[in-house]
Structures are given as structure tokens and as C-alpha cells.
């Protein structure tokens, strides 16, 4: 009974900072812990840094000359303003006031003296008596898919900025058209990730038509693929067809369905491990958790420095890392022996 109560208490202490629970499960509780380490430096710009500032353009789009008075302020003689020189320059950087532009296309017709009737053709893509152009279509897709604005707010923004009334339903149609046009590119990305030596995978909840769905991601240094599915586990993984059958390294957060991908070499995400270690430290106070945290952070710093200097670790170097890692794991196992009997 006490063991069960301890388990319940432990679960209540979990949040997105110290476990793999999503941030949406934290509610309105104020977060107080962070995995970021203090650098010891003062807040703000550091001494010696190369700052950036707004600079004057060499070729301004418009020049406004402010005239001198016609006569001298002291003697009232006429000023030879044609000889005036620029004594100072100031620039104002702004965005132009914009409005939509309507281009009308005319197809011409003419009958030759021989009686042959000729007509010109409209350019490709101009197929309706009135339609939206490619720029506003691209803007609508970018606002909803790139900037993640709701369709209604994206339509409102287009109207406020450009004075163009576009319905949310029209934006939905544009997104569908863009999706169809980019499907070949998405297929190439998926194929490249399926064959990649190393891929990161994750999933995050989102709402689709008011119902919980999952945004699945597969990515490496050069490619990123997103897919939405109503399921979080194997049904989505199999339908997306990227992770199943891979023989490379798969980095993930220890979500159970990933372990069913037997062809992959599994690696756990260190960011998630650090949160789990923070939870172990907060709930048990056992020193191995902090030791593993320090080891992972230091190992990451060493690996980053080695990559920057194009240094390859020797087999002995890798063995040394593994020895330290294994020793800390054994310390944790001794402090937390596996309970006998069935484990749920």
C-alpha cells in the first residue's frame, strides 16, 4: 500500500521539466526548475561582442530635400538656394502602404482579309473570369502553415493589410492546392529520411477540428518531415512509412512504440534523459542522477568541440566514455534494485 502511495505521489510530481510529459499537461502551475546552467555572466550584451544596429542604406528608394528659407534670417537678403549643400542625412526605414493590385488580361480576336478568324490565348494559370493571383495564394499558405495562424485570423490579417476580402474557406482550398503541388517534394524528403543513417523522431499533440491528433516529425541535419495522424503510436508510424524498416540510428524519447521498430539502432534523446534525471534527483536525492547529468553535459561539450576541430575520438576515448557511463548506471541500479514479481 505504501509503495502504491509513493508511486502516486511520484506521478503527481512529474511535469514537462522533469519527465517526458508534454508541456500541455502542466496546467497553470508555475515552473520553477530549469536545465539551463548559469554562465556566471551579467545579463545583457557582453563586453567585446559584435553588436548589430540599423544602418543607413547607400541607395535610398526616395530622397526628400527640405528647403531653406528664401531669405537670410539676419539681414533678410535673398539666399542663393541653388548653391545649397547637404549638411546632414537621416533615413527612416518603413514598410510601404500596400493594397491589392488588379491585372486585367485581354484576349484579342481578328478576322483576316481571307476570312480566317484568329484569337489570342490567355497565359497559363489565368483560367477564370476573376481569380486570385499566386502571390496572395502563397501569402495565405505561409500565414497558416508557416506562421501557424488560424485560418480566420489569417484572412483577417490579409484584409487589414491589403484590403482584400479572403474567406477562411478559400485559404483552406489554397493550402490543399499547395499540398498537392508539394507532394512530390514531401515524398523525396520522406525517402531521404528513410535511407538516412541517423533520424530523430518525435510527436506532439494538436487539435484538428476540435479533436486530439498528433503531429509526427522525422528529421536530421538536412531534412525535416511532418505528418498529422489521429493516432500517436504504431498505426501512424506504419502509415507514414518513414521509420518502419529503417536500419540506421533512431533517436527518440523512449516512447514505447519506437522500441517495436526492431530494424533500427535505438538512441535516446539526451534532452529527455536530462529531464528524467532531474525528476530522479528531485524525488530520490540519489547522487547518481546528478553524476549522470554532469557526465552527459560534459560529454556533449567534448563532442561539440571535437567536431568543431574535426577531431575523431579514438577507440580508447570511446571506451573511456563508456566506462564512466556504465559505472554511473551500475550505481543507479544498486540504489534502485528491480522489484521481484510482475512489474506493470
UniProtKB/TrEMBL annotation:
Residues 131-329 form the Transposase IS66 central domain. InterPro entries: DUF6444 (IPR045618), Transposase-related (IPR052344), Transposase_IS66_central (IPR004291). Residues 15-26 have a biased composition (Low complexity). Residues 13-67 are annotated as: Disordered. Pfam families: DDE_Tnp_IS66 (PF03050), DUF6444 (PF20042). Residues 3-53 form the DUF6444 domain. Signal peptide: none annotated. This is IS66 family transposase.
Amino acid at each position: 500500500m505504501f509503495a502504491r502511495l509513493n508511486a502516486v505521489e511520484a506521478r503527481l510530481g512529474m511535469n514537462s521539466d522533469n519527465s517526458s510529459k508534454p508541456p500541455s499537461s502542466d496546467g497553470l502551475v508555475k515552473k520553477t526548475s530549469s536545465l539551463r546552467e548559469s554562465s556566471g555572466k551579467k545579463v545583457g550584451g557582453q563586453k567585446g561582442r559584435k553588436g548589430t544596429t540599423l544602418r543607413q542604406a547607400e541607395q535610398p528608394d526616395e530622397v526628400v530635400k527640405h528647403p531653406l528659407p528664401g531669405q537670410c534670417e539676419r539681414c533678410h537678403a535673398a539666399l542663393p538656394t541653388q548653391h545649397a549643400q547637404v549638411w546632414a542625412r537621416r533615413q527612416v526605414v518603413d514598410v510601404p502602404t500596400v493594397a491589392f493590385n488588379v491585372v486585367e488580361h485581354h484576349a484579342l480576336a481578328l478576322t483576316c482579309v481571307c476570312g480566317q478568324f484568329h484569337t489570342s490565348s490567355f497565359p497559363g494559370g489565368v483560367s477564370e473570369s476573376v481569380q486570385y493571383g499566386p502571390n496572395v495564394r502563397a501569402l495565405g499558405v505561409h500565414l497558416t502553415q508557416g506562421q501557424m495562424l488560424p485560418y480566420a485570423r489569417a484572412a483577417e490579417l490579409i484584409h487589414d493589410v491589403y484590403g482584400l476580402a479572403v474567406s477562411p474557406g478559400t485559404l483552406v482550398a489554397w493550402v490543399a492546392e499547395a499540398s498537392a503541388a508539394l507532394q512530390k517534394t514531401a515524398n523525396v524528403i520522406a525517402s531521404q529520411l528513410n535511407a538516412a543513417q541517423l533520424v530523430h523522431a518525435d510527436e506532439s499533440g494538436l487539435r484538428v477540428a476540435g479533436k486530439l491528433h498528433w503531429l509526427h516529425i522525422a528529421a536530421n541535419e538536412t531534412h525535416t518531415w511532418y505528418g498529422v495522424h489521429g493516432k500517436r503510436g504504431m498505426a501512424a508510424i506504419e502509415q507514414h512509412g518513414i521509420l518502419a524498416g529503417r536500419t540506421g540510428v533512431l533517436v527518440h524519447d523512449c516512447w514505447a512504440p519506437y522500441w517495436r521498430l526492431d530494424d533500427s539502432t535505438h538512441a535516446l534523446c539526451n534532452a529527455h534523459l536530462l529531464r528524467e534525471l532531474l525528476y530522479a534527483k528531485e524525488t530520490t536525492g540519489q547522487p547518481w542522477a546528478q553524476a549522470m547529468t554532469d557526465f552527459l553535459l560534459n560529454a556533449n561539450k567534448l563532442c561539440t568541440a571535437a567536431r568543431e576541430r574535426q577531431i575523431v575520438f579514438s577507440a580508447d576515448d570511446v571506451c573511456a566514455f563508456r566506462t564512466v557511463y556504465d559505472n554511473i548506471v551500475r550505481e543507479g541500479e544498486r540504489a534502485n534494485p528491480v522489484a521481484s514479481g510482475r512489474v506493470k
